[in-house]
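Justification of computing resources. Each target in the renewal requires a structure prediction run like the one illustrated here; the chain below, 55 residues long, is used simply to show the kind of job we budget for.
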Amino acid sequence: MPKKNRTPSTTPHQDHVRPDLVSWQRLVSVALLTGAVRHIGVLLAGLAVTWWQHD
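Resulting structure tokens:
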């Protein structure tokens, strides 16, 4: 029985044209956001320790 509604593997799909670019942009933005949040957390922890040890 022949298979129906199949596209040949040689034709590129439109939804697979740019996912690499989008995934790289998403990875870079998530990495930058994660780094910023970590820096803010370290600064807040340092301020909390400084305030806690203040006499």
